[in-house]
Amino acid sequence: AGDQNLFTSLYPTLSQQLPREPMEWRRSYGRAPKMIHLESNFVQFKDELLPKEGNKALLTFPFLHIYWTECCDTEVYKTTVKDDITKWQNVLKAHNSVDWLIVVVESDAKKKNKTNILPRTSIVDKIRNDFCNKQSDRCVVLSDPLKDSSRSQESWNAFLTKLRTLLLMSFTKNLGKFEDDMRTLREKRTEPGWSFCEYFMVQEELAFVFEMLQQFEDALVQYDELDALFSQYVVNFGAGGKCP
Q: What is the pLDDT along the chain (244 residues), one digit of tens a residue?
């Protein structure tokens, strides 16, 4: 969300550098941590992309929402940017989406072109005071990202570390909820109207997720469980039971 032209100018560098460094992925239930490379598909913010109540999909809606701005003028911030961020956050709250990040891009060239006196409180501080409350780390600065300098690279590195961390946190949380919902659905398999085909689609999506992360053993476990569940239904059907 935010300044689409700004994001477009930074996207080539972002998409190239994001998966470069691996992240340690820690999960619950005593599972061993693994190193994974994160690749993300960035889409323009739209209300209809947010998950609806009862949505069982895991790969079709965004996990982490990012607002981009390079505003460095207090008047522009007051009249347009603040209102735009407010509307964006209200939509997220309405869909119970709590994983977000605001990126303020600072450019020396843009600062030099300013005609008004530098404010005592920077735009970043204003955004943190207005929107971040106790989550000041949800607003980060990206300094001169298109410059070829050590300062620019340091800024990119800090931003990418933050982005990878938030992406992995959000993904792990959503994955955990998906697995819980899947287990609840599986426990209802003796109830009338339960569909093996519908359940198959849910667990298959979980397998796709593990394949995407190159965790092939975890993906294979999902197919093994589906095979065992299907075999159980075949046996029940042969014994005169119902096979949905």
A: 999 999 999 999 999 999 888 888 887 766 778 888 888 889 999 888 887 766 666 777 888 999 999 998 888 999 999 999 999 999 999 888 889 999 999 887 665 555 554 555 688 889 999 998 888 889 999 988 888 888 889 999 999 999 999 999 988 888 888 888 888 888 888 888 888 888 888 889 889 888 887 788 888 988 898 888 888 777 766 555 554 5
100-106 β-sheet, strand order: 65-69, 100-106, 139-143
Per domain, the residue ranges of the chain are 4-173, 189-239
Alpha helix (H) ranges present in the chain? 4-17, 74-76, 82-94, 108-112, 123-127, 150-187, 196-212, 216-238
What kind and span of H or E run contains 24? strand 23-25
From the number of C-beta atoms within 10 Å of its C-beta (0-12, 13-18, 19+), residue 12 rates as exposed
187: tokens are 């426990």
Whole-Å CA distances, 39 to 15, 142, 194, 219: 8, 20, 35, 18
Phi, psi of 231 (to 5 degrees): -60, -40
Amino acid, single-letter form, for residue 180: D
Residue owning tokens 């109830």? 191
What φ, ψ does residue 177 adopt, rounded to 5°?
-65, -40
Nearest to 202 by CA among 231, 172, 229: 229
Please tell me the distance from the alpha carbon of residue 189 to that of residue 196, in angstroms, as a whole number: 8
Amino acid, res. 174:
N
Q: How far apart are CA 81 and CA 236, in angstroms?
A: 61
**Tokens in use for 151?**
């300062």
Please provide residue 51's backbone torsions phi and psi, each rounded to the nearest 5 degrees.
Answer: -65, 140
